[in-house]
Amino acid sequence: MATQMSTMMSLTTAPSLNFPHSKPPKLQFLPFITSNSRTRVFKLGIGSVRAEASSNIDMGFVQQAIGLVQASPPTWQSAIFSNTVIFLVGSPVLVSGLSLSGIAAAFLLGSLTWRAFGPPGYLLVAAYFVLGTAATKVKMAEKEAQGVAEKRKGRRGPGSVIGSSAAGCVCALLSIYGVGGTAFSGLWELGFVASFCTKLSDTVSSEIGKAYGRTTYLVTTFKVVPRGTEGAVSLEGTFAGVLAAILLASCGSLLGQVSTLEAVICVLAAQVANFGESLIGAALQDKEGFGWLNNDVVNVINISIGSILAILIKQLLLLQN
Hints:
- The chain is mostly helical.
- 72% of the residues lie in helices and 2% in strands.
- It has helices at residues 2-12, 35-69, 76-89, 91-97, 100-137, 140-146, 158-176, 182-212, 235-254, 260-283, 295-320, and strands at residues 216-218, 224-225, 232-234.
- A 3-stranded antiparallel beta sheet has the order 2-1-3.
- The protein starts with a helix and ends with a helix.
- Mean pLDDT is 83; it is low at 7-15 and 27-33.
């Protein structure tokens, strides 16, 4: 029995390892199980988690921003956010056409417009600003030499911004607070578009008339007067003003703010309002006892006439139908 046990042990005993001419190799641990490597792996894992978390936060912010811009109907939060982004991106253009205080007033106008009429209304006002600024810059040096150019190289201040947008702002507020219900919502938007068509037509006719008008007439007497005289008109300026009103009204139609018929109404109302403004300028402005009747006040009267007249024409058409 002992002999059998001895034989079995000799068969199961592992063979010895011989390492001739060298020492047995030392056991080496793989790098990924060392202490430093474990630290590096841990840090790498944390970094990946942080990067993923940061990416998720960035994507969440982007999605939230897109959601604000696309909010329908617009909210005050979406209006202020969208307006802020646009003002930051478009600051070079804004600075060229507005003073710093004018930019502040324009920011309020932009936020109010977005809240009331969304991106279409905002784009309409942006088109008005770009076209009006471009017309103001036409032959600026020549107009300055003649003493008929706008102050500050045509950069508008807060008074001009308010004077140009007061009627539009009233229409926007009436729309926001639902005055008159859904039956009047379209009328407020029509009045909004008409007010800016009126002001753009007035600005372009005045600036192009001062730059290219060959003969300028006073509307009350048709007497020939120098360019830039209050209440004076020229053929070139009048034609340019009509084209400007048609262009902006067409923008309003393409943006879905007004129908084709309503765009025509805006153009007609703008021309009637501008003629009325010329009458006021020729008869009253710069006259004794009317020192308060400056350009900004006349602008408010002008755009209010255009806005109200467009709404009245539309109402009359509705009554006939």
